[in-house]
Amino acid sequence: MAVDLNRQTKPVNYSDVSFVVQGPIADSDASRLCNHLRATFPGSPLIYSACGDARSVHGFDRVAWTSDPGPMPPLKFDKKVNNVNRQRRGTLAGLRLVETPMAIKLRSDSLLYDDRALRLWDQVAALPRNGAVGHGRILTSSFITLNPRYLERLPYHVSDIFQLGYTEDLLRYWSAPDYPLSIALHYQFNRFAPRSTPEETMFRSKFAVEQWMCLHYLFGLSQNWPIHFHNDVSDAIIEEFERHLANNFIVANHRQLGLWCPVLSWASESAFFQAVCYSFD
Fold this sequence. Notes:
Elements: E1 17-22, H1 27-40, E2 46-51, E3 62-66, H2 84-95, E4 102-107, E5 111-112, H3 116-124, E6 138-141, E7 162-166, H4 167-173, H5 181-184, H6 186-189, H7 209-219, H8 235-248, E8 249-252, H9 254-257, E9 259-260, H10 262-265, H11 271-276
Parallel strand pairs: 1-2, 1-4, 2-3, 6-8
Antiparallel strand pairs: 4-7, 5-9, 6-7
């Protein structure tokens, strides 16, 4: 889908959009980020959210923190910490402080260069939706919104490194239950599905974190989910997923969003990631 960001549209008022910045951040970095966001989005409320005591972080309009649930076992058979419950609880605590109709969920190590994400929203948010959930679409990043036709065949793997949408929708998205140990350790004690790819057999967890969040948002309780494990895939499942993706999300690349994030620095120019991730270009 081609989008002309230079076309003049009626913009969303900055004062109608709150930023929820989630994750650990040094006070000096918080000051620099707040100064940039206030200059770029004048009037937008700035909220910081984290697990654990965040009273040492300054510069935001409001600060939310919640008890630290601690890390989960690594998502894959490696040593990378799985902070899904920290991220979920912290983000939800911040969203509960939002008083504006719209919100932006932003990682604490990232920023928006300018307001092009809002201009993109203005152009495409009102497109017709069929069989959708929530009040409107959620604008998100193409990076790790995976196309399950490639090496990691993971339907409903929708990126959450950046989100823009109606506050009520983001609240619903982040209201998924805590990630349980029984899911996190599933493949430690269970076999993979036949014909799993080598990339898919790297998982310790029954689902990817992004799948856990997206499936709860779209379908609620797990007994309603169209898939039963991370690489539960078929042509029919992919087609259904793509219908839900088109009706409930806007997937854009980092340039369309004006999004800078360290995790994007090595992947944004990768032909591989451009091939395996969706984007409504």
